[in-house]
Amino acid sequence: MKTVFALCILFVVSCKSNYVVSQHIIQKSNACPENSVCSIELIPNKTIEFKVDKFGIVYPVISEGEKTLLKYTFNKNPIAKTQDSNYTEIIYAELDSTITELDLTDDSLQDVKLYFGRLCYCKGATGYYPIKKGTFKLSKASNSSIKIDVNFKISEVPQIISEIRETITLKSN
Question: Phi first, then psi: what are they for 31, rounded to 5°?
């Protein structure tokens, strides 16, 4: 009888947790390149779509929805007294409203609409691009947090950020 009870307890404890993000979570990144500011956000009740303008430039459209957006932002500090020295990279992923563990590679990265954005005064080398080569992993870090591990390479434009390793504290459901 004790063995059955112990197995039941082990089963309950080892079950994967599902997380629901009920409010906008934003935290400063722990691993940001020097001379820059990075943040990671989980934005509930949104959806993202990538559209193309008349010049062939891809841009995101965020609207109300039933998903949770993951947004990682890298902002390089502008050069003092220099116009047009702003430089930003953004990584977006669209997650289910109930966040579960994920392990995606290459072509399956588009299951979460994983995109890289480069925003700068960089003629011909700015915009948003689908990430087609890399890995995207979400895993349980504790009863109230998830670990995000992303590693990718974009061939269309130069990039500074190629990996994200963060832990975000959530409310468990």
Answer: -125, 85
